[in-house]
Write a structure and sequence with these properties.
Layout (H helix, E strand, L loop, with lengths): L3 E9 L9 E3 L2 E3 L2 H14 L3 E6 L7 H5 L3 H10 L3 E3 L9 H10 L4 E2 L3 E3 L10 E6 L2 E8 L14 E3 L3 H15 L6 E6 L3 H10 L8 E4 L10 E3 L2 E5 L6 E10 L4 E11 L9 H18 L2 E4 L4 E2 L8 H14 L3 E5 L7 E2 L2 E3 H7 L6 E7 H11 L2 H4 L7 E3 L3 E6 L4 E7 L2 E2 L5 E7 H5 L1 H5 L3 H5 L5 E4 L2 H10 L12 E3 L1
Parallel strand pairs: 1-4, 4-5, 5-6, 9-11, 11-12, 12-14, 19-27, 24-29
Antiparallel strand pairs: 1-15, 2-3, 7-10, 8-9, 13-14, 15-16, 17-21, 18-20, 19-23, 22-27, 22-28, 24-25, 25-26
Helix pairs in contact: 3-7, 5-6, 7-9, 8-15
């Protein structure tokens, strides 16, 4: 007869400072108070419960940005996960600051493959073993270089470069701990749902990885993917829902006997509130409200940004503001910099900062027409439409691009009503993050482009530009005008 034990695993990913509940149809939805209430409720109902977070606790709220993640760690300490892995946004305030933040955390933060290049030393503990009801559950944290673009500022920090090498690291850890009779193994990753499935496909079954709980791609799924006998899941983004596994573990054979997985909505209908955590939130919100509650502007209507891989009204407005304010020919605004799906019509400073939290510098660089075409062609390459998590850009007014995926050719590439001249030099705006990762994001070297002229910093603050422009321009509007059409 099998020796079976029940294990409940709750999981979140990409919380992005989504601390406060919203009222939707007279029902409170999301927020860390009810999320904590649900986690505590399950912990009281199910004795073998583990709660884990698959990266990106930081960014997305003024409470996080104002205190550079220190507030987030205090809130997460109240939420009390059993184990967390890092995401790419954990490095937004710098790796040194992240290591300080880790010392403030009262829960283990794991990562197996972020290391110092000079000596190979890991920055974090690679794994965590939870011991519960006689079971030993091994958690291994993973991230890949593709999602760690922010660490380009820290030249001594590196990571394994692809899925195969990440899988090798998993094998090294699993092999090292097999002798202590691990009953269950979880990969806690922040590489994206499609990459998680690729990782599952190359894992050696002998390593005993049972499930992969991931983040980064903000993927909502109806049911788990099962690849190479490994269950792969992700719980979307934010605090509106939580993933839940109810697993019967075969502790004789160290594997899943059966399981049920679902996403549970976090709302006031069935999630109690955590009043202690609400007191912490109230403390931080009172401080940020004094600074961020002022009115910036009013739009003519709500502007939206529903998808990062298409032209959007809100993205177009931000790109146009940069172009006009900085005297550029074309602004290529990082589409992923816009973190809200909509903004307005009333825009408070808090709304603006949560919508566009990346207050980095803006560079002006000179590119020829042929270089610009190469950059845009790489931006809209086939893998973008096949689900890969790639950088995408909002184009400023005056640019009209039509691209045929079937023939991989431009049927139109105009600037101010005229075809882009291959030999002419255009002044392009890019944020510092995209300058730092220029070759990776555009498949063209910054050295080649710099032959047209040295890139120059034209602003040290995106927030200042938007705040100044919007404060002096009321009733703004934008429509989708076909700046970029991909057939």
């Amino acid at each position: 007869m099998k020796n079976l034990k029940k294990l409940t695993i709750l999981h979140s990913n990409d919380l992005h400072g989504d601390f406060l509940a919203e009222e939707i149809d007279s029902n409170l939805v999301g927020g860390v108070s009810m999320l904590s209430g649900y986690v505590n409720k399950v912990r009281n109902e199910e004795k073998n419960t583990v709660y884990c977070v698959a990266g990106d606790m930081f960014r997305g709220s003024v409470i996080d940005s104002e205190f550079q993640g220190v507030s987030t760690i205090e809130i997460m300490n109240m939420l009390s996960p059993d184990v967390v892995t890092i995401g790419n946004h954990e490095t937004d305030y710098g790796v040194a600051h992240l290591l300080f933040i880790e010392k403030c955390a009262k829960f283990p933060i794991i990562n197996a493959n972020l290391h110092i290049k000079t000596n190979g030393a890991r920055l974090f503990k690679s794994h965590y073993i939870a011991e519960i009801d006689g079971m030993k559950i091994l958690f291994i944290g993973l991230i890949t270089e593709e999602v760690l673009s922010q660490t380009k500022n820290d030249g001594i920090i590196g990571t394994f470069v692809d899925i195969n090498e990440a899988a090798t690291e998993v094998g090294n850890i699993c092999n090292s701990y097999n002798a202590i009779d691990i009953d269950f193994t979880v990969l806690l990753t922040h590489i994206g749902f499609e990459e998680d499935k690729k990782l599952a496909a190359v894992l050696d079954p002998a390593w005993g990885v049972d499930i992969i709980i991931g983040g980064h791609s903000h993927t909502f799924i109806d049911k788990p993917a099962i690849v190479n006998n490994t269950v792969v899941v992700q719980a979307g983004t934010g605090t509106d829902q939580i993933g839940r596994f109810d697993i019967m573990v075969d502790t004789d054979n160290n594997c899943i006997d059966s399981f049920k997985w679902q996403t549970v909505p976090i709302n006031s209908e069935h999630c109690p509130r955590d009043e202690d955590l609400e007191n912490i939130l109230r403390h931080y919100k009172e401080q940020t409200d004094k600074k961020y509650s002022r009115l910036v502007t009013r739009f003519r209507k709500t502007l939206t940004h529903p998808c990062r891989t298409q032209e959007t009204a809100l993205g177009g407005l931000f790109a146009d503001i940069m172009r006009e304010s900085l005297g550029l020919d074309i602004m290529l605004l990082g589409s992923g910099s816009v973190r809200s799906t909509q903004l307005g019509p009333i825009v408070l400073f808090s709304d603006l900062c949560e919508c566009f939290p990346y207050d980095d510098s803006v560079y002006m660089l000179k590119v020829t027409g042929v270089q610009l075409k190469r950059m845009i062609e790489y931006m809209i390459r086939d893998e973008v439409w096949e689900g890969a998590h790639c950088e995408f850009y909002q184009l400023s007014t005056g640019v009209r691009v039509e691209y045929d995926r079937a023939t991989h050719t431009f049927s139109r590439f105009d600037f101010n009503g005229e075809p882009v001249d291959d030999q002419k030099v255009y002044k392009i705006g890019l944020q510092q993050f995209h300058i730092n990762n220029f070759e990776e994001f555009f498949s063209i070297s910054l050295e080649e482009v710099s032959q047209n002229g040295k890139p120059l910093v034209v602003s040290t603050s995106c927030t200042s530009i938007f705040d100044e422009y919007l404060s002096t321009h009321q009733n703004l509007d934008r429509e989708i005008t076909g700046r970029l059409i991909v057939k």
